[in-house]
Amino acid sequence: MYTPPATPPSTPLPPDLLLRKPGTVTAAQVMLWLQFSFLICCGAGTGLVGLFWTSVDFSDFAFDQDLTGGIEDLAALVTVVIVATIAVVVLYGILAVKIGAGRRWAQVVTILIMLASIVIGFFGLYAGFRTEDEAGAAVDGSRLIWTLLGLSMPLVTLLCLFTGSANQWFRQRGRDPLKGMPAPAPQYRPY
């Protein structure tokens, strides 16, 4: 025969506050800073090369008919690619800083960007680049290796942001709840 407990079950206590940023959040920050630096180093160049490999041909600018108009069109296209690269670089820098501060919106935006990076990377890997008359050409080994290496950073970033300690860090909004508390005692004796 079942008898109810004498005292009602207590409300579970919230998990202890994290006093330090978890290593997984630090790893996600490092991955974002690495992607940030790669975008600075080779983002605009890679964007332009990819654009001209896939969808833009120099004959589209009609240099032979109107040289000035063709140069203006080319300059406008290059400007758009460079501005888009700068915007993505700034976004990665902001996200890396805000993830360390424990902002949930930064976690969500980073997850969405990393998922988009993975989807676009696999699409580029399996669709192949359109060069001349070869649409959807077979993937060669070097492209496969470099694409998989490039996709490892967004994948590691995602894995780091989905851990329990990272979620608790974002749930408690980083170090915000600790601002009114006294500083923790050092775990070592000073000399």
UniProtKB/TrEMBL annotation:
The chain crosses the membrane at residues 30-54, 74-97, 109-129, 144-165. It comes from the Bacteria. Keywords: Membrane, Transmembrane, Transmembrane helix. The keyword Transmembrane applies. This is Uncharacterized protein. It comes from Glycomyces albidus. The lineage of its organism: Bacteria, Bacillati, Actinomycetota, Actinomycetes, Glycomycetales.
